[in-house]
Structure formats: C-alpha cells, structure tokens
Design goal:
Chain lengths: 172, 201
C-alpha cells in the first residue's frame, strides 16, 4: 500500500527568514573557509599517499578482494580532499583508481600494472600539480584514461562476454 | 536549479539545525567550513551511525548531510533507519548524501534508501548551496511503501516506470488516444502543464 504524505519542511521556512546572506556572500565565505583548510588538506593528502603506497605494497600477486578493498578505501578518502588542497587532477586520478578497482571487482579480473600506473601518477600530481607544467599534467591524465580504457576493453562485463556476436552457436 | 554565485537572493541558515555525518577529520572539516560559510550556527557532527542515531533521537534537525562511507558502515543504512525507525519530524528531514567514488549502483542505492539527493565529491560551495536551496524549494512529498520510505523519487514527472502499469491510484494508463487533427505536444509542453510554476522575471 503506497502512502503519500506532504510533510512541512521547516528548512524552507527558516531559509526565508529575514537577514542571512546573499548567495554570493555565502559562496565567497565558504570558499574562503576552504582556502584556509588547504594546508591541512595537503598534510592529509601526504598521509593518504603513504597509506596508498602501503596498500599497494600489500597487494598479493594473485587477486584478493580484501587487499583491493583496502586500496579502494584509501583512494576514495583522497577524493574531495585533494581538490580542496588545489590538487584537482590528483583528485581525478584517485577517482580513476577507484573506478579501476571497482571494475576489477565487478568483472572478477586482476592486474597490478594499471594500479601501479595510477599510484605513480598520484605521486606525480602531488609533486608537480601545484607548480607544474599543465600540458604535461594533462598528458599524464590522458595516459591514465588510456590505461583504464584498455583494461575495460580487455575485461568487458560478464553480460558482454556472454553475448555472442552472431547468435548462439549451432548444437553439434 | 539555475543559481549563480553572483545571485543576490538571500537565504538564512542561522536558525537551522544541521547534522553532518562524515568519517575522517578532513572531510568533516570541509563540510563544516562550507556550512559555517553559508551562515549555519547549529552544527551537530558524527562519524558513526550509532552516534548519528543518538543525535537524531534527541534533536530536531532541519537538514542532514551524510557521507556514504562511514567508519562503522554505509551512510545508506543510517538514512534507511531515519526514514523507517526514527520519529517525526526528523524522519522527513531533508538528506543530502555525499560520496567520493560514485558508481551507478551507488546512485541507485542512495536514491532507494530515501536520500533527497546525492552529490559527488569534490564538493564545491556553489553546488552544495544550490542543492540545499533546491531541496527546500521543491518540498517533495514523501512516499511510504513496504519497500521504500522517503521523498518521492518521481520528481521528474515522467510517470510510472517504463513497462509497468503503475502502482498509485493516480497513475494513468499507458494507452493514449490519438488526435489526428492536432500536432502532438512536446515533452517540455506536457511537463509545463503538469508542474505549473510562478516565474520571476
């Protein structure tokens, strides 16, 4: 039985109260607050990178879900914090690493090499993004994209693997 | 959701009570800085589901911002509990889910647990503020079924899910009469009829 209810949102009433801020003032104040955090965010990023290195070093030669999950979690923690520290490309690289591990889990595949490329790229962005050559940074990011595309092409999802191109093969 | 950072419209978060549920000091500090910048004064913080539940039980909240990954579980669990087990008015409180890596399954999970909206990190003040104002303005009705409790997920006015007859008494049949003498209306024209709004010029 579906019940539809129209609750009263107090938030809407409060937002309309006199006083407050204009959108522009509020966004500016929030941006200033975030800027003040950037130093702490960089410290957090450095710690997270260390944990990523540790998680990568702990990856066994054969596929192990627990070790992959650990690496995924640490990379996921970087997303958002790296961008606040001004490392937006690094943020995207961390997202790409999570995507890759997620894809590996989804298709049951395992390959250390694309993970290593991502970990190296994270270090590269940490070292050079804030003062680096933007063209080179873009190139590294494109390289990561190609690594992911290649992995996805080599490891299609099970539904695509199961679908034969020319229909079912004739029974013998 | 057209909102620009140059917008001169005012809003007031001073008397709103917000609960921020996020794991890790830094991600929490980012949320806090943002909300303080928006003018919020009453912020409750939790990094665990149980801690958040205790706050929900004791405090009337106007907005929750919940991370999908918490120290002791999944933020969706907290939202599901909020919608099912907590008491009014908090069970209807707006919830924004924030998420780092956001796969398609994560978006579906957040939608189905009863969150109003999901925002992918990195969070920017303009996007977060835009979503808060949008949620307050839209005032989506709440739906309670045996399998779902939360804001109406059909906020795009697209009718019942494709291929199903619909589960609500006001769901219309998929059969549409033909009007050979009249041109068909575009989807935008139909949407405009279904959801008339005041326009500020």
């Amino acid at each position: 039985m579906t019940k539809l209810h129209r609750p009263k949102y107090r938030l809407a009433e409060l937002l309309g109260e006199p006083g407050g801020k204009t959108v522009a003032e509020a966004v500016k104040a929030a941006e200033n607050g975030l800027m003040a955090l950037s130093g702490n965010c960089l410290d957090f990023v450095d710690l997270a990178l260390k944990r990523i290195d540790d998680a990568y070093a702990a990856l066994p030669a054969v596929r192990e879900e627990g070790a992959m999950t650990q690496l995924y979690r640490v990379a996921d923690e970087l997303i958002g914090v790296a961008a606040t520290a001004g490392l937006t490309t690094m943020d995207r690289a961390a997202y790409s690493l999570c995507d890759l591990i997620d894809r590996m889990s989804g298709v049951g595949a395992w390959d250390r090499e694309p993970i290593r490329v991502h970990v190296d790229a994270l270090h590269f962005f940490r070292r050079f993004e804030l003062a680096g050559d933007q063209a080179e940074i873009r190139e590294v990011l494109q390289g990561l994209r190609r690594v992911c595309e290649k992995f996805c092409a080599d490891n299609p999802p099970p539904s695509e693997q199961a679908a034969p191109a020319n229909g079912p093969s004739p029974a013998n | 959701m057209a909102l620009t950072v140059e917008s001169r419209s005012r809003f007031n978060l001073k008397h709103a009570s917000l609960l921020l549920v996020e794991s890790g000091n830094m991600p929490m500090d980012i949320l806090v800085q943002m909300m303080v910048g928006f003018g919020a004064k009453t912020l409750y913080k939790a990094d665990r589901i149980e801690e958040a539940q205790t706050i929900v039980a004791k405090t009337e909240l106007d907005l929750l911002i919940v991370s999908n990954r918490l120290a002791d579980g999944d933020g969706c669990e907290l939202v599901r509990w909020l919608r099912r087990a907590s008491t009014e008015p908090n069970k209807y409180a707006p919830v924004i889910m924030v998420s780092g890596h956001t796969g398609g399954s994560m978006v579906a999970k957040a939608r189905d647990c009863g969150a109003h909206i999901i925002i992918a990190k990195p969070l920017t003040p303009s996007v977060v503020l835009e979503r808060i104002l949008w949620i307050a303005r839209e005032q989506r009705p709440f739906v309670t079924t045996p399998t779902y409790a939360g804001p109406d997920r059909r906020f795009k006015f697209e009718g019942p899910p494709w291929g199903t007859p619909g589960r609500r008494k006001d769901d219309l049949s998929g059969h549409v009469a033909t009007t050979p003498d009249l041109p068909n209306m575009s989807q935008d024209q139909i949407d405009a009829l279904m959801q008339p709004r005041k326009v500020s010029l």
